[in-house]
Amino acid sequence: MNTLSRDDTQRMLNKVPEVTLFFWIIKIMATTVGETAADFLNVNLDFGLTGTSLVMGGLLLVALLAQIKVKRYIPWIYWLAVVLISVFGTLVTDNLVDNFGVSLQTTTAIFSIALLATFGLWYASERTLSIHTIFTTRRELFYWAAILFTFALGTAAGDLAAEGLQLGYAYSGLMFGAMIGAVTIAYYLFNLNAVLAFWIAYVLTRPFGASCGDLLSQPVANGGLGLGTVVTSAIFLLTILGLVAYLTATDRRLAEQI
């Protein structure tokens, strides 16, 4: 059993932010950026899926190493890692579908199994899946592995709904938004387990954000609003930067009061 002092525990608990409204707003926007930025790099800059995956994989590795190295939650490092893992998770699914011909049904099943396996190993090792107990490096590694698979799964499920089942981006967004609403009601009114509610919502916000991103960025002929990946990515990135700057300033003020 790991033995940590109270101060050590407090510092490590701060590695993951509290689940507030800001958390969910930034997370949904990060998922939207993951969808539109991947398309921008792949198509607009003509990197191709392989080139884009290599570039984003390298950036993600650097961001995760920085996140794991720091001793407490630092907003810009944490959310940079989330944005990059969102883009990379999208690319993992896109590579399987576009480069290797794996169907969306199969990729959805594969990442569902991978996520459940990660949770199973995490729980068997740590006896908890709560994000409020990420106070060891091993737990943080489990956490980021789960995050990666939620993004890959969300991409596959979102594309399956919008394209495979031909629901379109707007109806897919409404469907996943309704599911998130149902989880919220189940948590607040029917005492759904907090850890279970968090992870279900975390998975669902990925296809919800991706559907919103596609709705805004895709051409009108494809069922979108035609804003393009550049404009959509810029809007959401600037919003994320503004919110993270606010959280950083707030975090600094709180640290000075301690």
Structural description of this entry:
The chain crosses the membrane at residues 21-41, 47-66, 73-92, 104-125, 141-162, 168-189, 196-216, 228-249. It comes from Accumulibacter regalis. The protein has 258 residues and is mainly alpha-helical. It has one domain (6-257). It contains nine helices and no strands. It has helices at 6-13, 21-44, 48-69, 75-99, 104-126, 137-164, 168-190, 194-217, 228-257. Helix 2 (21-44) packs antiparallel against helix 3. The longest helix is centred in the C-terminal third of the chain and has 30 residues, at 228-257. The chain is globular.
Q: List the total number of helices.
A: 9
Query: Major β-sheet, in short?
Result: none
Q: Show unreliable segments.
A: 1-13
Mean pLDDT: 86
The number of distinct structural domains comes to 1
Structural class: mainly alpha
Run of helices and strands: HHHHHHHHH
